Amino acid sequence: MTTVKIVTDSSIQLTAAQMQAYSIHEIPLNVEVGGQQYVDGETITRSEFVQKMAESDQLPKSSQPAIGRFVEVFDELGQDGSEVLAITMTKGLSGTVTSAQQAAQLSSTKVTVIDSDFTDSGLSFQVLKAAEMAQAGASIAEILPELTKIRETTKVYVAMPTLENIVKGGRLGKLAASLTTFLKISIVVELRDGKLRIAKKGRGIKTIQNFAQAKVQELIEHGDRLGGVSFSYVNDDYLPQKFTQQIKERWPQVPIVTEVTSPVISTHAGLGAFAIIYYYK
């Protein structure tokens, strides 16, 4: 029976303990902030990135891992005859999946590359499922349909109290340009099919607070179907912690992750932003 090994990228929301327990291999993205370049998770932590972003007057940048980094990991993991399943963040936010696909063609290992369509915990829901099944001896052919099921019920909403980073980064295109005419506008975007779409917009922080509270109430009402929930944030954890507690009071068994998000989301979303990420079983 062929062993399957799991590879992902550093935009994922996983703890070091989870990575070790499930033998998940992470390829780091490259980030630039304050005029300095770093390797995500290796030469800069998420909290350090946010601090440097707050101090800089330049928009941070991120870039996909080098193809050679993927090839090196793929080749090493396949030395014992194992196959590799690489699950990456959406191509809508990064070229990481393209680097992985190109590396798969160059590697001596049999590699299957999947675009998760998401990032952060939207990516980790799929990666954890794949890793659990791989440890149980499942083949890639058996794993992929289960990932599709998770992907189809995953929702990612990112609440942004300011549009500065998302507009400068160009991720909302022409629609963002029209929003810049408003003062103190806040938005909630949904990451769907690899693209950012505006789910709610309005003046003031109450816009995103009310949207998020309504979404949390919806999760509480359907808590028996929740497979996982995450509140990832850039620098302010007040609302994420509040929402976490509300869900735990009603559904203590539901796994909830409340942590600083990756530099990818921090860069695009900006200070004060947070994400609501979940999927239904």
Automatic annotation (TrEMBL):
PROSITE patterns assigned: DEGV (PS51482)
Keyword list, A-Z: Lipid-binding
InterPro entries given in the database record: DegV, DegV_C, DegV_domain_contain
UniProt keyword annotation of Cell membrane present: no
Record has Thylakoid as a keyword: no
Pfam families: DegV (PF02645)
Leader peptide range in chain numbering: none
MF terms (GO), sorted A to Z: lipid binding
PANTHER family in the cross-refs: DEGV DOMAIN-CONTAINING PROTEIN DR_1986-RELATED, DEGV DOMAIN-CONTAINING PROTEIN SPR1019
Name assigned to this protein: DegV family protein
Species the sequence originates in: Bombilactobacillus apium
